[in-house]
Amino acid sequence: xxxxxxxxxxxxxxxxxxxxxxxxxxxxxxxxxxxxxxxxxxxxxxxxxxxxxxxxxxxxxxxxxxxxxxxxxxxxxxxxxxxxxxxxxxxxxxxxxxxxxxxxxxxxxxxxxxxxxxxxxxxxxxxxxxxxxxxxxxxxxxxxxxxxxxxxxxxxxxxxxxxxxxxxxxxxxxxxxxxxxxxxxxxxxxxxxxxxxxxxxxxxxxxxxxxxxxxxxxxxxxxxxxxxxxxxxxxxxxxxxxxxxxxxxxxxxxxxxxxxxxxxxxxxxxxxxxxxxxxxxxxxxxxxxxxxxxxxxxxxxxxxxxxxxxxxxxxxxxxxxxxxxxxxxxxxxxxxxxxxxxxxxxxxxxxxxxxxxxxxxxxxxxxxxxxxxxxxxxxxxxxxxxxxxxxxxxxxxxxxxxxxxxxxxxxxxxxxxxxxxxxxxxxxxxxxxxxxxxxxxxxxxxxxxxxxxxxxxxxxxxxxxxxxxxxxxxxxxxxxxxxxxxxxxxxxxxxxxxxxxxxxxxxxxxxxxxxxxxxxxxxxxxxxxxxxxxxxxxxxxxxxxxxxxxxxxxxxxxxxxxxxxxxxxxxxxxxxxxxxxxxxxxxxxxxxxxxxxxxxxxxxxxxxxxxxxxxxxxxxxxxxxxxxxxxxxxxxxxxxxxxxxxxxxxxxxxxxxxxxxxxxxxxxxxxxxxxxxxxxxxxxxxxxxxxxxxxxxxxxxxxxxxxxxxxxxxxxxxxxxxxxxxxxxxxxxxxxxxxxxxxxxxxxxxxxxxxxxxxxxxxxxxxxxxxxxxxxxxxxxxxxxxxxxxxxxxxxxxxxxxxxxxxxxxxxxxxxxxxxxxxxxxxxxxxxxxxxxxxxxxxxxxxxxxxxxxxxxxxxxxxxxxxxxxxxxxxxxxxxxxxxxxxxxxxxxxxxxxxxxxxxxxxxxxxxxxxxxxxxxxxxxxxxxxxxxxxxxxxxxxxxxxxxxxxxxxxxxxxxxxxxxxxxxxxxxxxxxxxxxxxxxxxxxxxxxxxxxxxxxxxxxxxxxxxxxxxxxxxxxxxxxxxxxxxxxxxxxxxxxxxxxxxxxxxxxxxxxxxxxxxxxxxxxxxxxxxxxxxxxxxxxxxxxxxxxxxxxxxxxxxxxxxxxxxxxxxxxxxxxxxxxxxxxxxxxxxxxxxxxxxxxxxxxxxxxxxxxxxxxxxxxxxxxxxxxxxxxxxxxxxxxxxxxxxxxxxxxxxxxxxxxxxxxxxxxxxxxxxxxxxxxxxxxxxxxxxxxxxxxxxxxxxxxxxxxxxxxxxxxxxxxxxxxxxxxxxxxxxxxxxxxxxxxxxxxxxxxxxxxxxxxxxxxxxxxxxxxxxxxxxxxxxxxxxxxxxxxxxxxxxxxxxxxxxxxxxxxxxxxxxxxxxxxxxxxxxxxxxxxxxxxxxxxxxxxxxxxxxxxxxxxxxxxxxxxxxxxxxxxxxxxxxxxxxxxxxxxxxxxxxxxxxxxxxxxxxxxxxxxxxxxxxxxxxxxxxxxxxxxxxxxxxxxxxxxxxxxxxxxxxxxx
Length: 1506
What we know:
With 1506 residues, this protein is α+β, with helices and mostly antiparallel strands.
């Protein structure tokens, strides 16, 4: 290395010298071509931008371009001038981008290794490895700084440990510990009669220990003292950096040529498009920093800054002209800094080169640098730089004469001082103390442009009122409005309205906003138009943009127009903000966004190569590229002009708003700019925006080369980035909606060996399966808790829209707190299940039958864990007409409305400001580019561009795309799309169909809170469809289309609810609306209907506007899928006969326990000393499936001392029970030992009702149930206090759930509620029928829940389950009950998570006492008891003593908040003061009256009680 440095020193510095007369492309190719290709464009200050809108309404020509690799496929011409090698003159125009983009993209033009030194990275920094991102290595692992926050108990232990250390550490037993050990050791040696040798050994150990410990102590003390002294010295004393200067002197000679070359390449690019029009070119001839390296004079560091901040003062100088400390031999080899700028003046052949020389530059200054550190890469978040004093600089500038005859302008008196003060005045507000210049390295290295848009601001200027003029001599103003940000450059303006003080504009404007603009002010300047002089200001209105983050839509705003502190009129306008949708990040990976048709496109024109030099008489071109959107006549943006080159580098980004991505096209025209002659078109290309986005995504920005048409050679590199907008109708709107072709019936059976993501917590995953289509969740199964081999056995239906769709069956782990985690996914292609049948117009798609599969669950591309077993079948839908919605989204409607209102008043202004300036009449955009020209058509300068016949847009029905990308007639294949909408069906016929797909268009709403609207059908817990969260509460706009399958139209239910929280978060239901599906369809079919949503107390929370359509799907449901298969079974336990005698007397004390699907649902009274008991008691039980129900009864003999004995078991078959028909059953009792002995007489009445499913317990969290509607006349809601049982009616009978010592199951606490299910009756005519027909809910008003008088409420605290440990190894729970001013407390139940208390409390209530509160606490002996959860119970929601059908007792299961688990209590009401009542358990004989019909009862009459 030393030899190399010496050789370089002997040869002197090599400046980057380029011949002044050399061509631009020669320099670029020879010196810096690859470096230039990787350079980033110069980023101007982040500013809001006026939006050009690609309306897509212009002529959309067939794309004339495909991406082709011209380096690997040489373009050979035959004698006729046509291309060969597989590309003929009439090349095929592709309907879609070729699937194998590898044939269409150039690979040669980007070399990642050729990046210029010090250039910005072309891609975002790669992800950090897991071991580093988790920061669980090194000192962070040892210190435990990243450990989770300790619990309260752990914190207490830490405090005790710290207190002990502070109190006793370093006390006598530490300081004198070695002496104690020595004394004890010598005493032990004496007792063992050991010799003096052992004494010396003990002495040696103690001496060695003392010597080492005292040496370490002194060393550490000395270092600590020196460190503290050094801090004070560092704060006031600057250090020299001689070692660094010595290194720079040697390294500078090696690095300076590379640095000069890199800077020269960057400057060349800037000069190429910064050349003034009166100059021919600006070129950098020579550039060098010389042989003398910069010198660091001193460095001072502040040691008292925070740990994440570094503050240093650097004194540096660069004085290459200093000759004091060098020898004459070194002076001969010395080179000073030198810059030669060659300026070409003239035109054409009459060009003269004038060199401008700058040399002998010197600089000296003191700079303060503050660095803010961070944990993630690049570890330095921001760098702030400022000069603590004015820097000193000097130079020699010779603008004329060059090096030989040049004259230094610094010799002109006063000029040098003037230039120096001018420089100081520019730099002072930027980086002279206290001002700082900040570099945000985190943002710069993130790969996201600083000026990128984060949203679109829509401004609808309505009108002005009483605007006061300011014309000289009076007169009525001609007002218009100019839009800007912080009163900077105008972004858009309206047309002026002549001679009026009350103008009406009605124009709509769109402005792109970046992140910085959201904290600024929107300025609406009202101007007075003047024809012959400058327009005058009439005042302005300021609008704070921070308010749009809280309320994105603000309509009807009226602001005062202010000028000089005085009111000058009023301005009425509307503001709407549409933010860019960002993907949610789950487990460090962004989730895919659903397909969007509305968004912002960021288009970048990078560069061009091999331009056709025949388009110019000279040997080179002055190319400029212009972008046209969807056949527009004026360009959206134009790049800068790069002079004298055939390979220009533009790197020009632009952003525009796209209302409809499917209809948008982009045209690029490369033009040779000439001053005095017409600008010819060098080449052009037209491409669909979707094709451009697909190619960029597949091939990347660096490889997206496109061939130019209309020329012999030439290609251009452009790329596009898509950012969807959160705009009504953007994600699931009518513009992106396609009518369904049928259903996919999925029978998800089971999963095996799924991934366990809760192994670290000692649990197992809680899996469920969700089905996604185009990134939207369509359906989900139930949750199977704590199981790695779940048995789902569930049938779900998913509407599909064409055969090219792919269903994603993703196995998820349910999380009660936080977002659910993915356990892997399985893909299912629709074209594997169905084929097209063009001959069948009614059902144009045919099913391939049931296809069973056992697919591996893929975690990643090639990594799988577990298997998912399911069966899939396609069910076609009827191909009816009229399944279309208004395809215009909110943006298109706004543009059309603004254009219509502007047209009504004339279009005198710029409704949408153009990003380009004025257009010269000689520019080429007025030349019509031929339509339908393919990429391979030859064109010469002498041959005019004649358009060929326009190519027809290929139809998906008639064409298919082969593997090589060509479009061919598809004929009859399985992916062909037959004609839609060939069957006409009337409204009455639709309403009489049995099943089908319900399609609903959620348009708008007036709600009190920003929320999402969720639509649930039938018995689903998960929503069939959910909108995005409304951006505004007062004027919510969704324009979203959803769909769901209705199994039985006559018995189905629709539930609309407002959820304030986002998807994946805990539900926060604000209000809901419920009605029959048929009633919902009658109101909203093909028309807009308004539905009012309300809380449980009847308070309205807003309304929504929905229209719907219905597509019939003829399908045969399995018996278990029918609504008749689920409902409420009333069981009348009448009597028994011939019961086996188990006592010595030959009699028994029988009682009966009923079990449904393994859960105890009822226990009867005990009848003493009888073999023919008469019970005559009844109870209801919810049956989720009659077909699959395992309903049994078991008769026991009660014993007071010993265990109860089983007398036999009987099975109750429910599959053959007819709905609404009361039938008596004799159930034989059998036992393994005695065979069949005895029988039980039952009466069964089954009422079909929808059993609303709910989330089951997870391995970590408790249940979260919900009720869909009223139960037994009692309106129920979602959330806390869900009722799982029915209280006794009208009378009080004791002894139902008495504790029995004989069997464990006989305890009432083991009579568990149904598995997180709550009943909901079903039927076309609900009761009250008028309420359902009107589409309203029945709130619990004074009529439905009469208020009680003074009475006594007895509370039996039964127990709890699924309590959380709160980080403890075990808990001892007890319950505290508060009612009014009274407080009751149970005993603790020992160490358990399922406590059983069975304690009774009584308290007096009045109508004012409505709620009782309870809390469960962990009993601590020496610490404060910790709360495990709390709940509130509405007393009169469960007890209704004054109702027409009184409810005097109830079983209540309520979910805990601020914790997990459920509490089970029983309530009983007694009128009066309750004297003489004993605290006994509640009655168990509950007879449910059937006097009033259910809201969901079917047409058949119901029997009455006997």
